[in-house]
Amino acid sequence: MTLKTVHTDKAPAAIGPYSQAVIAAPFVFVSGQLGMDPSTGNLVGDDLASQARQALENVKQILIASGSSLEKTTAVEVFLTDMGKFLEFNAIYAEYFSTHKPARAAIEVSALPKGGCVEIKCTAVVG
Questions:
Q1: Are 13 and 56 in contact (CB under 8 A)?
Q2: Are 25 and 126 in contact (CB under 8 A)?
Q3: How far apart are CA 7 and CA 10, in angstroms?
Q4: Torsions phi, psi of 15, nearest 5?
Q5: Cβ(108)–Cβ(99) under 8 Å?
Q6: Predicted confidence (pLDDT) per residue in 62-108, tens digit
Q7: CA 107 – CA 104 distance, rounded (Å)
Q8: CB atoms within 10 A of CB 20
Q9: Residue 57 pLDDT
Q10: Long-range contacts of 34-39 (CB under 8 A, 24+ apart)
Q11: Where are the domains of the chain?
Q12: Nearest CA to 20 among 79, 62, 78, 55?
């Protein structure tokens, strides 16, 4: 099996020793994305809404760079620092996954890198 790492400037660079994504055909595995601005590497705001939208945009751009898309996503894992914001997150998530609904898990965690309030990772089909 051939593995290919993915990098795009349209999503934030990795903040550690990992890749934005790895293709192991026919799948791409996207690393957890915070709500960071690709150009600055900083969180786009302190609130869940701005961070969730940016994290989803980052995932979307990495999928495109991988030769995939949101519509080819098979599974999504969401990490929230406050499960009390689950309904707010769901409304934003539905903007990106309105017709195609991949398998998903949402997990509350005590903290995320850079003080983020949401992190999103996924698996999708390539090609």
A1: no
A2: yes
A3: 9
A4: -100, 20
A5: no
A6: 999 999 999 999 999 999 999 999 999 999 999 999 999 999 999 99
A7: 10
A8: 23
A9: 98
A10: 34/58, 34/112, 34/113, 34/114, 34/116, 34/118, 34/119, 35/116, 35/117, 35/118, 36/12, 36/114, 36/116, 37/12, 38/9, 38/10, 38/11, 38/12, 38/13
A11: 4-125
A12: 62
Global model pTM greater than 0.90: yes
Q: Which pair of structure tokens corresponds to residue 22?
A: 């790895």
Residue 95 tokens read as 């903007």
CATH code for the part of the protein at 4-125: 3.30.1330.40
The Cα–Cα gap between 70 and 61 comes to 9
Burial (0-12, 13-18, 19+ Cβ within 10 Å), 88: middle
- Res 1: pLDDT: 77
